[in-house]
Amino acid sequence: MNYDVIIIGAGLGGLTAGAKLSKEGKKVLLIEQHNIPGGCATTFKRKGFKIEVGLHMIDGLDDGDPKLKIFNELGVLDNLDFKRVPEFYRFVKPGLDITIPDDYEKAINILTERFPAEKKGILKFFKIILALRKEVFKVPRQKWLYWLSLPLFPFRCPNLMMRENETVGKLIDTLFKDEDLKLVLLANLGYYHNNPHTMSLSYYSVAQGSFFRGGGYFIKGGSQMLSDYLASIIEDHGGKIIYRHMVNEIIIENGAASGVKYSKKSATEGEQQIAYGKYIVANAALPNVIEELIKDKQAQTKLADAAGNPVIAPSILSVYLGFKRPLKELGNNIYSTIFYDESISSISELEKYHYMDLSKRVCIFVDYSQIDSGLAPDGKSVGVFSAMDYISDWDTLTKEQYKEKKELAAQTLIDRLNKHIPGIKDEIEYYEVATPTTIRRYTLNPQGTAYGYAQIPSQAGRKRMKIQSPIPNLFFASAWTEPGHGFTGAILSGNWCAEDILRKA
């Protein structure tokens, strides 16, 4: 069969690209190895509960958020119910308990009231991150190289020119002396990275600034609603989606991508099918594309040289929880609570605490009952307790060791939660643990990462692999390429990919 576009993978990047291209009249084939679309934007059902795999909240949706235009074009906001999350996060450390609003003016007021001696730095911090977010989105992506060549560019984007290679840790250390304030401002660092002193300031500013400008939202019914909706656009406009199939090879002819070889996920060797397309879009982990899908040695070398040797980001451990009643009835009134151990004294220690035993590791608990999430039966509720994690802690274990370690992880985090919300342990009706190996199994991401490549200055934003690869007719749409990870990053990547293809078509 021949198609205009063949997309490998039904994560948000591939789905967004496929939806936009299908609406523009392109004949699209999307091949997904799982039995549902979404990648990390999925849900599953257990004992009457709907469990959200990845979405705690999606940022922005204000006038400065480029997703807004994409969602309007695809009819997302007309067909899905986005629930505003009541606050950004609550920071809890023995001796310090503070809730940060998702509005920058309110956040400034709360922070300056709690840390009056740091008022000047607080005002400058928000000024810088909001300016960086604005500057990143000021110039259309396709015109970046043009604008960079102009003498007036430094005056149009002064913060970006000065700080593109800076880390958020450096900025925080420069502006503030109070270590508690630094910890509060970086409380949700785990949304992006594990070390503030290697975390790209520009990427952090775009994401964090979006929460402070536009707030946070949860899609009622879970992220699967968005994935299913995007998939429906593809099929409603004549596109075809094949589930439970693996792409085994990207066909290279005369140095250009021209098609794919694929088979049922359970198929034996030799049962492959072939589809040809004018353009191939990889919504798959970049290392997998290079090492497994490109068999042509010359093309493989070209792609590997372009990718370089980037650092892969950490993974996530999650304990999914179903409760007998809404946690509001136990006195919890916060959507996202981030726990720091009392022994953490400075941001220079944060990376270390992302590796520690779960009894001390930085963790976040999300209580979906604080909003009309659509995840639990009437009178019940759903939550998730998550921490950064690493596949090296799991992939050498025997089956029995793995099972035991998961149970220990669950009980350790549940005990921590019970100290914060007394009695919550008795309200648990269901729990389940997802590890980095779980993420690898369902997404095929190397090291089980949900982030792609780490957001360090040398590989953040427009320094990542470009949407249009060095191999003609091969494009990317994923968290592994520009602009980066997260729901927003994947959606933008898919939209940019579609735009690039439509300009060529």
Number of helices: 18
Q: Helicity range of the residues? A: 25-40%
Query: For the record, what is the CATH homologous superfamily label of the domain at 2-55 and 222-308 and 454-504?
Result: FAD/NAD(P)-binding domain
Taken as a percent bin, the fraction of beta residues is 15-25%
Architecture of the domain at 2-55 and 222-308 and 454-504, CATH level 2?
3-Layer(bba) Sandwich
CATH fold type of the domain at 2-55 and 222-308 and 454-504: FAD/NAD(P)-binding domain
Query: Taking Cα atoms only, what radius of gyration do you get, to the nearest Å?
Result: 22 Å
Low-confidence segments, ≥5 residues, pLDDT <50?
143-155
SS-based structural class?
A: alpha/beta
pLDDT averaged over residues: 93
Largest sheet: 7 strands, mixed
Number of E strands: 19
* The CATH top-level class label of the domain at 2-55 and 222-308 and 454-504: Alpha Beta
- Tell the overall outline: globular
Q: Termini, distance in Å?
A: 19 Å
Describe the structure.
There is one protein chain. With 505 residues, the protein is α/β, with parallel strands linked by helices. The chain has a domain at 2-55 and 222-308 and 454-504: 3-Layer(bba) Sandwich (FAD/NAD(P)-binding domain), CATH 3.50.50. Helices cover 37% and strands 21% of the residues. The protein is built from 18 helices and 19 strands. The protein has helices spanning 12-23, 66-74, 76-79, 104-114, 119-138, 144-148, 153-156, 158-163, 168-175, 179-185, 201-214, 224-236, 286-293, 297-307, 350-353, 399-420, 436-443, 486-504, and strands at residues 2-8, 28-31, 43-46, 49-52, 58-59, 82-84, 89-93, 96-100, 216-219, 240-242, 245-253, 256-264, 273-282, 315-323, 336-339, 363-367, 381-389, 428-434, 474-476. The strands form 4 sheets. Strands 1, 2, 10, 11, 12, 13 and 19 form a 7-stranded mixed beta sheet that branches. A 7-stranded mixed beta sheet has the order 8-7-15-16-17-14-18. A hairpin with a 2-residue loop joins strand 7 (89-93) and strand 8. Helix 1 packs parallel to helix 18. The longest helix has 22 residues, at 399-420. Residues 143-155 have low confidence and may be disordered.
